[in-house]
Structures are given as C-alpha cells and as structure tokens.
Amino acid sequence: MADYVIPAPQVPSIPVSGGGSFPVRRVYCIGRNYAAHAVEMGHDPDREPPFFFQKNPNNMDSTGEFPYPPHSNDVHHEVEMVIALKSGGTNIAIADALSHVWGYAVSLDMTRRDLQGEAKKLGRPWEIGKAFERSGPVGPLHPVSTVGHPDRGRIELKVNGELRQEGDLNQMIWKVPEMISYLSEYFELQAGDVIMSGTPSGVNSVVRGDTMEARIEGLGTLVVKVV
Prior knowledge:
227 residues, Fumarylacetoacetate hydrolase, domain 2, 6-stranded mixed sheet, 5-stranded mixed sheet, 15% helix, globular, metal-binding, Fumarylacetoacetase_C_sf, hydrolase, Fumarylacetoacetate hydrolase family protein
C-alpha cells in the first residue's frame, strides 16, 4: 500500500447496468461531431480534423441531480453517448478500435456557455465552461455483450417534456472507431478512459427546477433534475 500523506481520493466511477461500477481514469470529449450542431455553433460542418477537450473524471455524476453552477447565467444541455474503454494503447488501428470498448451509456455534457464563450474570445482553454463540478451527468453503462456497438439509433433530449435535441448516432462526423484511433495517436489510452462522442443540434439553456430526459435508442433514458 502506498504511503500517502493524506487520505487517497475516492476513485470516480460510473454504475453498470446489472450491477457493479466502472472506474473512470480520463474523460475525453469531442467537439462539434454532428454537422447540424457545428452549424448552430457558427462553424463549417465539413469534415475537418477532430478536436477534443477534457472533463475531469469526478465530473461524471450518476445522482440524477445537476446543481446549477455558480458564475453563470447560461448553462446548456448537450446529450451525448459515452464510450467506455476496457483497454487501450497508442496508434490503435481503426479496424482494431472497437475491441477496446467495454460499453456505452447516455450522458450530458453540461456547459456554462457564457463562460465558454468568453474563453473562446480570449483564446483561452474551455475548462471553466466544461469541467466544473457534476457537469457530466451519466446513466448506467451497458456492456458490449448486451448492446453491441451502437452505430445508429435515435438520440434525443427533452426538457420538461418538450423535445429540444434530436438526431441519429449515424450522423456523427467522426465515428467511434475513428475517435479512438485518432486519440491514440496523441495520448496513451488505457482501461477506464471514457469518450463523450458529441451532441446533435438543439442545445439550449436550462434553469433550476427543469427536468432533463436524455435518451439514446438501445441505451435507455437518463433523467436529471436541475437543482
């Protein structure tokens, strides 16, 4: 046992459908991976090289509640599919990428859009708008042995019963194997890494008291209350 000088922090984890939990090592998030969302954010949807930012592992939250964060008046929902890796490496071939996946889940990339916008204008990193406490609500992981590798299927988000976001997983510009392969060229991926795979169009703000329902066909529904 390591001789830590303070108590070791708890290992962040995601619950697993059917029991158990998945330990989270790193969280990679791809930006503008649906063409319609790229357009609504003011960018050309042509297939440019992908770019990624990161959340912190302990941002992933399965409590069903999202505390409205401080210093923001414009917090947006972004429904996304999470990809959880059971193994990794460097320079992973696209043809081999899916063999590293343990499972998939429904998640939300909650964003302090006003603070992210300020950071963009100043050419600064996005963490203040993306990597804040409990900014990654997530549902239970479903193992590949149960759901396979979802490459199509409806993805949607409702707020208080009103449809806000809708699309299909097959509309992702960069597919799951490509994301894994690309990331492995720049990072050494390992078991416990998760990838948030981008959001369709329709992102918008939430306020305290709202109820968000994020759904991906085959992966169930994630219900989160804004508190």
